[in-house]
Amino acid sequence: MATPITQADIDAVYPTVAQTIADALGVELDEVKPTASLINDLNAESIDFLDMVFRLERAFKVKIPRGKIVENARGTLSEAEFEQKGLVTDGGMVQLKAYLSEVPADRFKTPLKVADIPRLFTPETFCKLVLQAQRETGAAS
């Protein structure tokens, strides 16, 4: 069983993640709040996600596979259990809310299009991604 990521873990990587996001998006560091929506609040676009992941991989010397957030959020659910016709299922929503526990509950709209999942991502989501990548790197070595 994977060790749960704690707030202390997140706090340890947050300053670097926040600075990396601010640099990638060309915003002031104080605009990067832990629960800010990267898309809605900080105007990130999909190309920015690639840039942020690339910069985080360099900063933390980890590898973050593309699509990792949605894959992690899906957990043990099959793709069919997670989504139907491009919409997240009820079971998928439960899984997504559990995985993206840092996201304010009112941001989860029903029905939620799978394509809109990135709108939920926050700087804290990226902290968790970095921490998971570090653990997987540590486990692999």
Taken in chain order, the helices and strands follow as HHHHEEHH
| Main β-sheet description | 2 strands, antiparallel
- The chain-level structural class is mainly alpha
Overall form? globular
The mean pLDDT is 93
Low-confidence stretches: none
Share of helical residues? 40-55%
**Number of H- or I-type helical stretches:** 6
How big a fraction of the residues is strand? Answer: under 5%
Head-to-tail CA distance between termini = 18 Å
Question: How would you write the strand order of the largest sheet?
Answer: 1-2
Radius of gyration computed on alpha carbons: 15 Å
Question: Would you write up a description of this structure?
Answer:
This protein is mainly alpha-helical. Helix content is 52%, strand content 3%. The chain has six helices and two strands. Strands 1-2 form a two-stranded antiparallel ribbon. Helix 1 packs across helix 2 and helix 3 crosses helix 5 (90-99). The protein starts with 6 loop residues before the first helix and ends with a helix. The mean pLDDT is 93.
